[in-house]
Amino acid sequence: LPAKFDWRDKAVVAPVQNQHACGSCWAFSVVGAMQSVHAIGGSQLAQLSVQQVLDCSFQNEGCNGGSPCRALNWLKQTRVKLVPQSEYPYKAKTGICHFFSQSHGGVAVKNFTAHDFSGQEEAMMGQLVERGPLAAIVDAVSWQDYLGGIIQHHCSSQWSNHAVLVVGYNTAGDIPYWIVQNSWGTTWGNEGYVYIKIGGNVCGIADSVAAVFL
Amino acid sequence: EVNSEEFNRRHLYFQNATKRHAYLNSFSTVPQSAEYGVNQFSDLSQKEFRELYLRANTDRALLFSGLKTEG
Questions:
Q1: Cβ of B27 and A153 within 8 Å?
Q2: What is the ipTM of this complex?
């Protein structure tokens, strides 16, 4: 594995988004992974509709919350094609699902994996390099006050409550860390990103990690 | 408005946030450590923040076994 790896260097990570006052992080993390894997496969990097997942993934609860795995399961079972963000823009509130014909263009999930990599974060690094950016759930209670730097302490792995996109890692310095895209806008953290120490499952970053296949 | 009920409540949340920052920063002893401080969420209570932004449900995933499994 390379000492550091960042999918942003390959221009396959879409810009940081802002979920605003809506509990839609789970949809942002899934759509972020799909956008990147689609671009890694050779397509133009295009922003896909988070609102479509928010409104239509019926096993989840829209702005009241959801889980990346349940969203991926819905996408896999239904073969729903996510349309471009421009066709179904984000509104930061749960709406009525818009349906599109099968002939309508879009990106569908063929399959996904979800694994607990706790105690095996090096294998998670391999998964990231092999599969592309990963949707992960974390405990982000202490992120309310985060300004920047590498989170090493006081971020439990007991109770997941937030979903994010792991886009890279850097083990070249004194403290190895994950590079994680959040969905709270670019004014939060390191221009919208948070760095989490690798090892010890800090913030529960390795508890449930999903890779998508398109 | 200054001294309105809302203002006083938010001011209290802000004061609580600065205490949290001092506590969390006390662990940041090595270079590159995380820093905590005033940001766009500092006048939210922890309960408000959680209810607005921390709504992901826990997914129980299989322990990675190193096998090449799909799905």
A1: yes
A2: 0.92
